[in-house]
What does this fold into?
Amino acid sequence: MKAASPKTARELLVRYNLHAKKKWGQNFLIDDNIIRKIVATGQLSQEETVLEIGPGLGAMTQYLGEQAGKVVCLELDADLLPVLQETLAEYNNIVIRQGDALKTDLDRLVTEAGGKLPYKVIANLPYYITTPLIMHLLEKGFHVSRMVLMVQKEVAQRMTAQPGTADYGALSVAVQYFCRCTIKFFVPPSVFLPRPEVESAVVELVPLAQPAVQLEDEGLFFQVVKAAFNKRRKTLVNALANSPLAMDKSTVTRILEGLGMDTRIRGEALSINRFAQLANAIYDNLY
It folds into this structure.
């Protein structure tokens, strides 16, 4: 039974007396053409392990099971486990686990389920936790070789945005520090049940062998980035002075001048390389 159809999805929800839970941002994929495109983007082989976060009714999981050697599913909603056990019953290479991805050691989850490192992550992410979950995947140093993620279109545009654009922000810098990120295609609301009110996009993230820039202190770098975008209309001098860093304006001015930057510059104008130079200069000044 293929779960990737409106008719099957509705029948499953009725049979198990379930409905999409708005609090968890549940929008089930019901279009096999879109699913095929997502799975193809993952470039899977029979030797590889895939982690799917939020399998829902198992529509995409079925296709993953046909393409990958091992599929590990992590589903937050315990009510969906009986559905998954039915839709995935014929696949002996799929393991279903219940849990919160934000609180899970994903490497351990994969290996304990019989999967191999490194692994790929393919997921239709709930919109309400998209950014925290992406940062969890990036910051924890999990052994992930590629990510293919369905996200809200606006988030995808922020992830790939360049300096000087309206979409450029802290998420842009963070993602591009860890990964090469590409928007692969856009997805209309009509391929989901229920239909979301926004468009979606599928993004591919390939972790870099080394972070995009060299830093004296990674934590300080992200503090500077966060402060710079916390109030976008503030100049960097004012943003850093009014941040938890609480730097003296004259010190920030001197550092910017030393880097050849305009003292009236705003964070949205700085490339990731310029943010790295600024953070390293602040580190040298503080330590």
